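note to self: the first set is below, dont mix up w the second
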Amino acid sequence: MNSAMQKRTIRLALSALLTGAALILPTGGPALAAAGGGFGFTNFELAATPPQPKGTVCPNTAGTCTNLAAEPAIRADGAGNFYGSSENGLGGGTDAWKSTDGGRHYATLNCPNCGSSANNTGFAPGGGDTDLATAPAKNSAGFYNVYVASLTLANVDVSTSLDGGNTWSLNPVSATIGGDDREWIAADGASKVCISYHDVLTFNIDVNCSTDAGLTFTQLGSAIDSSHAYLLQNNGSGNLAIDPSNHIIYQVFDGIGNENGDVVCNQTADCLHVVWVAVSTDGGRTFTDHKIYDNPNIHVSYNHQFVNVSIDKAGNVYAVFTDNHNLFYSFSTSHGTTWSGPFQVNKSPAKTAIFPWSVAGSAGHLDIVYYGTTYFQAGTVPDNYPSSAAWYVYYAQSLNALTQHTFSQAQASPIVHFGGVCESGVACSGNRDLFDDFGVSASPTTGLASIIYSDDQYTNDPNNPPQSGCTPARNNTISCDHTSIATQTAGPGI
């Protein structure tokens, strides 16, 4: 069995544990001229290592841009380089890529966390729940550190590159508390990096920080403060973000509100109706929890993968969350202590919007991506949507998120999935081809976005060839799962 098939076998075995007209751009890939804001995107699949060697550039006409990965993450560094990562599942390692031309092409990097740099052993200590961060300041060699986190269940892997993704060093025991789930990672300065995760024993959201670029994680804090201990067993975590201008750390999550008797929810899906943020002003040593939004209907849940937080260049903070139908955002101009909103983001034809991710730019400039479909049926959750429900990557942009709260919306991809989408993570019993999240980042030099997403559709064109085991008969199944890119080629940046 070749390495690619080994990784697919591992991911299959462990996954239970864990409107536009087409046009062709000269940079490669079918692009979508989507309505709303005049946006355009070029779409293409990425290559895995192996079977392709490090440095394979996508898109290309050689048919070598295929992968078996899912649940990807993306960030940009201060020089405008994009870095992406995507998981092959527990024990299968992480694929990684870099773009130096604004997201129009991506080249494969060595595996950050595998048994060999070429990932040809079929084994890695991690490979689940990937997340990625880039340092906001250069190191002594003139590079922005890149960090890739992944999950082993026993602990959290953090891989660090000090040379722009050329080489990686791995710390396989980054978490102070073992037995972990759903890690997130964020960077500060030239060499500080923090991770957050649920520890299985207490279900606390722990925050570990390193000041030596991930070599050791010696500082441990709790995102849930002593005044809100009732949240310990009643929360769902979102991502971690750090403001490089003032070093404030934000950990977003959803939970109960401790009123109307909802403290007895014990994490049932219909009662995590409050969006929270934990704020640290002392570098992650201590946190204070603040309510972002408390829905008076305690049977509305925001515990859907995942609540998300981002920060603009002026220090304004944005929280994005979905109720399994519509997508909302709130914002804070007071470093997370008080919040305005929520304001709805999605609009027709995206009648259902799930899996949000955001990135902020200049003051009041915000990009949000989500999987959307024209289908909606009251009382029917996305898990049970019919096969006629077609899902796309949607892109929404606001250049006045602090004032008028209006968004231009565009379809940024072809169809990525038909039918139900399970959002219960490891507890999923339905279709989990889109797994739990995807991402967007924006170049600090151009403001244009690059989106990394999952797709389970069979395609056979020069920029999107079918991967091993993916046939027309296996369209819309895990056999065709892969990671793709949608890079913005037209429209305003943030």
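second set (the one i keep forgetting abt)
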Amino acid sequence: MKKVKHFLHISDYGSEELWDILNLSKEVKAKFRNREDYTPFKNKSLAMIFAKPSARTRVSFETGFEWMGGHALFLGPTDIGIGKREAIKDISRVFSRYNDMIMARLFDHNHILKLAEYSTIPIVNGLTDYNHPCQIMADIFTVWEHLGNIENVKIVYMGDGNNIVHSWLHLAMCFPLNFVCCCPKGYEPDKDLVKQSKDAGISTIEITHDPKSAVKDADVIYTDVWASMGQKDEAKAREKIFKDFQVNEELMALTGKNTLFMHCLPAERDREVTDGVMESDNSIVFDQAENRLHVQNAIMIKLSE
């Protein structure tokens, strides 16, 4: 029986396989832009399980899968109480008989691992509290588009060492990057993952707490909201802790380069990033947002091969 492929962590794949996804993303993007007739998922269905709501994730997956000839089914938090109303392994096995692929956007990372363990169809990780692999694949594709190269680019992430950072660290185990996570003390990414990414010996990894020195020579400065979904009760406290980590015009000027700005969205303007930086010529946040669609399409095509 053919082994089922899933997309759960970027580091589950080798660099050649990731490059295959990026190159296919470029082809699929051109087809989409030209509105070509392209239907690799004709008569197929995608179950989209959302424990965590998201506008961009739903719209990009649903639009992409249906453009490619399939049917995407949205299942919100009230449709499936994943991990509550019934066993995850039961959901996985039932959906495997109804659908051709599952995309899940969840809180608990163990839930997506359990889905994959019992599924006989591909599972795509649309986000968990631990990582966000589709986002970072779209991000590195966007960097490639703008810089023409990704090898040893300096990417400085400013803010909480969250699931976005974890996926950058997974990517750094596959592609040679110069990755810096600049965060307040106590908000560092997972220590074991940092060690694993350093031990891989492919990229330069730095965890620092000094924004001004961190951004020197940065090709890209990247940020995210200071309080993610499920952390909003901490928002006021975090605003005081993170205030020196705001990406503003002064910080961008300290890089000494024509540095690109990235944000995975949604952005809280004039909190983690100023409105001026968001609207600047160096901001490529909406290219990132668009590229989620194309890269996710490529990932789903590769999983179905």
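remember for set 2: The chain has a mean pLDDT of 96.
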